[in-house]
Amino acid sequence: GGNIRPLRLNVWRGSLVVSMDARLRRELPGLSSRQCPGTLPDIATEYIRFEGRTVRVHGNCEPAFTRLWDKLDATFR
After folding, report:
1. Pick from 13, 10, 5: which is nearest to 48 by CA?
2. What span, in angstroms and rounded, lies between the C-alpha atoms of 53 and 11?
3. What is the pLDDT of residues 22-72, one digit of tens each?
4. Strand 46-50 vs strand 34-35: parallel, antiparallel, or unpaired?
5. Residue 23 CA: distances (Å) to CA of 13, 27, 30, 46, 64
6. What is the side-by-side strand order in the sheet with 34-35?
7. Burial class (CB in 10 A: 0-12, 13-18, 19+), 58
8. CA-to-CA distance for 24 and 45, rounded, in angstroms?
9. Which of 2, 17, 30, 32 could form a cystine bridge with 44, CB 3.0-4.6 A?
């Protein structure tokens, strides 16, 4: 959601993906989708989709999600 387009990262199998698979399997199940209070509606919802599970966070109120997002972003840029 929102008017600002989120970063879209499509990852195919490769050497970096194998190292991130374990991290995603370990950390993603502990996260839940959140609508952060006070977040403007035109801010994009960030989401991570992995092995059929999607976690969405609209805002900046889920530090564990943000850390995982930042790690993915840094790994695949």
Report:
1. 10
2. 15
3. 788 888 889 999 999 999 988 888 888 888 889 999 999 999 999 998 888
4. unpaired
5. 15, 6, 12, 18, 12
6. 34-35, 53-58, 46-50
7. buried
8. 19
9. 2
Residues 6+ apart with CB under 8 A from 37: 59, 61
CA distances from 62 to 17, 50, 51, 58, 77 (A): 24, 18, 21, 9, 22
Q: What are the structure tokens assigned to 35, written together? A: 């609508």
Question: What Rg value do the Cα atoms of the chain yield, rounded?
Answer: 13
> Encoding tokens for residue 53?
């599970």
Q: Which residues are 48's β-sheet partners?
A: 55
pLDDT digits 0-9 by tens, 1-10? 456 665 555 5
Alpha-helical segments (H) within the chain: 15-27, 63-76
> What is d(CA 23, CA 11) in angstroms, rounded to the nearest whole number?
15
